[in-house]
Amino acid sequence: MLIEKIKTPNDLKKLSHTDLERYASEVRNFIINITQENGGHLSSNLGAVELTIALHYTFDSPIDKFIFDVGHQSYTHKLITGRYEILKNLRTDGGASGFPSTNESNHDHFISGHSSNSLSLALGLARARDKLHQNHHIIPIIGDGAFTGGMIYEALNDIGESKSKLIIILNDNKMSISENVGAMSKYLAKLRLSRRFNKLRQNIKKSASVFPLLNKKQSYKRLNLFKARLKSLFIKNRLFENFGVTYYGPFDGHDILQMVQVFEKVANKSIVDDKPVIIHIISQKGKGMIEAENEPDKYHGLNSSLMTSNIDSSFSNDLADELIELANEDNRIVAITAAMPSGTGLDKFAIKHPDKYYDVSIAEQHATTLCAGLAKGGMKPLFAVYSTFLQRAFDQILHDVCLNNLSVVFAIDRAGVTGSDGVTHQGVFDLSYLNLMPNLTILTPKNGIELKNMLRYAFNKNGPVAIRYPKSYNTCEPIATFKAQEFDNIEKWETLKKSNGNIYILACGSRMIELLSALDLNITIINCRTIKPLDYESLDYINNPDNLIIILEDNISSGGFSSHVLDYLYTKNPRQPPLIKILNHKTTFSDIRSIDNSLKDSNITIENIKKTIDEFLA
Fold first, then answer.
1. Quick one: how far is CA 516 from the chain centroid?
2. CA nearest neighbour of 275 among 356, 163, 120, 421
C-alpha cells in the first residue's frame, strides 16, 4: 500500500498523478477507519485530503512552513510527514495528537487547537524570515469558518500594510462545526459563484483576436478593462483586494493536478511580486463518505468506539431542557453560542426558541460583549461555551461584564480535564482566571438536577454568574450514595455525608463527588457547589487544628478553588490551622488523552485519598 511507503514529502513527490489519486483514496479510507475506532475529527479531514497532498507535492516542508488554522484537519499532513504508525493510536496516550504538535514532528511549527490565529502566526514567521534574509514560503491553511473570528481581520489589516510574502489557502467548505452563519459566509458564497466568471475569462482570453485592428498591447489593455468590468458584475465587493491581498480562485479542492498547477504558478509569481496572496479552494466537508457529506456536523468529531457512556448523562442536554422551560416563562431570556450549538446543547433550544437564539460564529470575544449589551438593554443572556474557548474572552468578561456588574450567565461546558483532544482543549484554567474577577459568582453542579436549580438562581441574580461543568456525569453511583437535598440557598454548601469524626472532604464539582461515592469511611463529604464566594460559615465551622481537610478540584493548583480556601483558613487561623491536603492538577500544560489517566497523574484517586486518611488516623 502507498500509505505505508510515504514517510516523507519527498516520497510523495515521486508519485505519478495516477498514484496521487490512489494515495488520496487510501488516506481517506485510513482516516475513516481510525476515527471510527479511536475517535477524532472526521469530516474536516476527509475534506482536506487532496488539498494537503497538493500542498506537500508543490512546496518543500518543513523549509516551507504550513500553518494549520485550528489544526483538526491535519491528519493527511501527519501521514505524509511520517506519522502513519502513531496515527494508528490517534488521540490516545503515546499515539498521535488530534492537532499539530511540535513534540511530534519538525513539520509542525506550532501546537494549535483554537481558531482564527493562523494569519497572525504566519505574518510573524514571514517578518522573521524577511529580517533574517531567508527565502522560503509561509503557507497558512485556514477554513471559511475561521473567517468569522475577529482576529483574522486584525491580521489581514496588518498583512496588507506589511506587504510580506504570504500564500494564504482558504479552504472553503461552508462549515465550521455547524453550518457557517453571518455576513462573511454570504460573501464567500458570492465568491464561489465567481467560478462561472473564471470560465468566461478563459474564453475571452482565447478570443483576443476580436480586436484585429489594434496592436497587441492595445488589445490586452482593452481586454483587461473589459474583464475588470465583467468581474464587477460577478463580484461586487473585492474584500481581500481592499486589504491589499491578491485573490485567486475559486478552484476545485479535490482536483490535485489543478491545485498543484495553481500553487506552482502562485509560488513562482509571489517570489517575484513579493506580496501576499490568497488562494480560494472549494472543498466538500466529509468528502468520500456519504453519511459525512450529508451530515458533516454530526460527523465533525467522533467518539471512540471503545468508549462506554451507558451510565452517563449529558450536562448539555440538561442545560437545554431547563433553558427551554425558563424561556417559556420569561421572554427576556436569550441564548448565545459561538459556532457550537450541538456541543453545548443549544441546538435543541434553537428549535424551540429560534427568536431567542443567536449563533455569532467563532467569536467568543464578541459573544461575551454582545451579552453585556443584551443585559444592559434589559435581556437575560446566557452564553454557552467550552471552557477552553471562553479563555479567549478574558478581557471582555473582566471589562465589559464584571466591571459593569451585568447579569450575564456563562454556561461553561467541558470544564476540567477533557481527555482525547489533549493539551489544547483542557478546561483546567477557568477557575483560576475567573476567581480573580470582582462581582462574578462561580457555581459548579454535582448533577443535572443541581445544574437546573443553578440556572434558575443565575437568571434571578443581580450580577454575572458562571456555571462550570464537565461533559457528562454519572447517573448511578453519586445519586444512589448521596441523597439529594431540597433546593434552598445555592450559595451554601451541601453536606452529602455527615459523620461524627474530624475528617472533612471538600469536593468541587460532579467529577470529584463521583470519585467519593465508593468511599465508605467515617468522614464528612461536602459538595462545594459555590466556588465564589466561598461558604465562609462552613469553613469557619471546620477551621480547627484537630481536623483533616481534603480539598478536591478539577483545576490547576494556582489560583483555583483550593488556593482561595487555603488562603481563608490560614488567614483566619494562622497559628493553629487544620491539616490540609489538596488534590488538584499541576500548574502545567498536560497532553494526557484520557480523563482517568489525567486524574491518576495528578494523584486525584480514591487510593490516594484513603492513604491520606490512614496517615492522619495513624
1. 31
2. 163
- The partner residues of 247 in beta bridges, in order of sequence, read 278
Identify the burial level of 250 via C-beta atoms within 10 angstroms of its C-beta, where 0-12 means exposed, 13-18 middle and 19 or more buried: buried
3-state percent breakdown (helix, strand, coil) of the chain, nearest 5: 45, 15, 35
Beta bridge partners of 381: 334
> Looking at 131-182, which runs of residues are DSSP E strands?
138-143, 167-172
C-alpha to C-alpha distance for 66 and 58, rounded to whole angstroms? 12
The span from the CA of 445 to the CA of 448, in Å, is 7
Nearest C-alpha neighbor of 88 from the set 24, 21, 36: 36
> What are the pLDDT digits (tens) for 541-560?
999 999 999 999 999 999 99
What nine digits make up the cell of 200? 468566461
Q: Which three cell numbers stand for residue 451?
A: 445544574
Question: What cell does 2 get?
Answer: 502507498
In angstroms, how far is the first alpha carbon of the chain from the final one? 63
> Sign (positive/negative) of CA torsion 373, 376, 382, 388?
positive
361-389 pLDDT tens trace = 889 999 999 999 999 999 999 999 999 99
Q: How many CB atoms are closer than 10 A to CB 4?
A: 11
DSSP H or E stretch at residue 334: strand 333-337
Within 13 Å of residue 162, how many CA atoms lie on the same side as its CB?
A: 22
Contact 47, 2 (CB under 8 A): no
The β-bridge partners of 413 are: 386
The string of DSSP codes covering 424-484 is GG-B-SHHHHHTTSTT-EEE--SSHHHHHHHHHHHHHSSS-EEEE--SEEESSHHHHHSPP
Q: What is the pLDDT of residues 33-79, one digit of tens each?
A: 998 888 888 888 899 999 999 999 999 999 999 999 988 899 999 99
Task: Report helix, strand or coil for 207.
Answer: coil
The number of C-alpha atoms within 13 Å of 367 and in the hemisphere containing its C-beta is 31
DSSP string for residues in 61-87: TTTSEEEESSSTT-HHHHHHTT-HHHH
Output the pTM of the full model.
Answer: 0.83
Contacts of 270 (CB under 8 A, 6+ apart): 137, 165, 167, 277
Edge to edge, the sheet with strand 380-386 lists 357-359, 333-337, 380-386, 409-413, 465-468, 441-443, 530-532
Continuous H helices in 132-182:
151-162
- Classified as helix, coil or strand, 581 is strand
Catalytic sites, residue numbers: 285, 364, 392
Q: Are strands 312-314 and 472-474 parallel, antiparallel or unpaired?
A: antiparallel
